[in-house]
Sequence to fold (162 residues):
Amino acid sequence: MAIGTKKIPISKVIIGEAEIQAVAEVLRSGHLREGPECEAFEREFAEHVGARQALATISGTAALQMAYQAVLQPGDEVIVPSFTFFATASMAVAVGAVPVFCDVRADTLTLDLEDAARRVTEKTRAIAPVHLFGNPADVEAVEKLARERRLSVIWDASQAHG
Fold:
């Protein structure tokens, strides 16, 4: 029996003409960072997600590194899902922390919180749930575990903007 070569995409990005035009306008303006479009985006995004403020970064990887630097010290452990983009774990390593992998749920591919709870040790300082492929992590359950175990939550919401 031959194995097929047809690929099944995990996700499909749809980019329309309006998005292309908006990017072209920013490129033509010469303000690729810290310009008026960026400031407007940060303000509107913060309002959209109910935050006091937002900071645009070049990537989700950079955002994770900044969040980890704010919360973790060298040697601290952070619980991360075993199935996600590599930056969720590698940025912990970049700041000297130790990623501790936990299982994901088969139905959502998000953190299995029972497994995450079993992996918490005296060195664990944070948990980094990921909203993945349109499947949100169980926010209330994550927050409950974090409160009970006195952990910071570093949300990897790179795929959860809307």
